[in-house]
Amino acid sequence: MRRLLVTLLVLAAVAAAIGLYLIRPDPLPDDALAGLVGDAARGERMFWAAGCSSCHAAAEAKDDAKLVLTGGQRFPSPFGTFVAPNISNDPDHGIGGWSDLDLANAMLRGVSPHGTHYYPVFPYVSYAGAELQDVVDLRAFLATLPADPTPSASHEVGFPFSIRLGLGGWKLLFGGDGSPVVTGDLTEEETRGRYLAEVLGHCGECHTPRNALGAMERGRWLAGGPVPAGKGSFPNITPAKLDWSEADIVEYLTSGFTPDYDSAGGHMALVVQNTAKLPQEDRAAIAAYLKKVPPAE
């Protein structure tokens, strides 16, 4: 009996060790960015495509204040309320002390410079498909923005979701590997649109329904779903519901006006402020991509 007990304890310890290994933070290799040099001018385009200011600027920020990434916006969900952190150039309370690799690990792997998991409210599941050069360029642009000393507020997340180590298990089940959702024979423009919409623009994070554990249901890509805060819903933007022409979509991403003379509201108004700063060909690429998304009711 004693031998059996010792054997079971050993097996349990081995299983625990394997489990901890599997759910550990998994950063990029130290040499992942070797030879890459950031271009701040190109990084500005990445900044608007990725929508950084929509979440990380102060809630009521306008004009140049949208470039002060002080954080503080609150995002309620069934798992708790998440608060956008300060990602300004402040070395103590922002990301002024981050390296290019730190940003790449955060965006592509959901791992902090301290080696802990980020919550997937930060859309690293989508960003996992980002080109490393784009991340380096984005870091170069972020370094040109103002520093703000406002400390980041803590998330308001209760047990068991407050145990970040458990996020490693979530990542094993649902973490992004960078593979595209819409596949097939795409034109160069449609492929560019897929990258902008699926990866940098992370459209699926709002417009795709989620399962009970908060993971996107990729089989119902962009089919819409309830707002995590519990009020309202995100619209279905697949061809099953979105019957706008490509020109209509481009106009909406430029001015926020719909073909019915309505206008973008809520957080989507902030998204349009970002897409309006992209080159016309990028908005056209997104429109072309949306026409290739499989219809989903």
From TrEMBL:
Residues 38-294 form the Cytochrome c domain. Keywords: Heme, Iron, Metal-binding. Pfam families: Cytochrom_C. One of its GO terms (molecular function) is electron transfer activity. It comes from the Bacteria. PROSITE patterns: CYTC (PS51007). Transmembrane segments: none annotated. Gene3D superfamilies: Cytochrome c-like domain (1.10.760.10). This is Fructose dehydrogenase cytochrome subunit. It comes from Albidovulum aquaemixtae. The gene is fdhC.
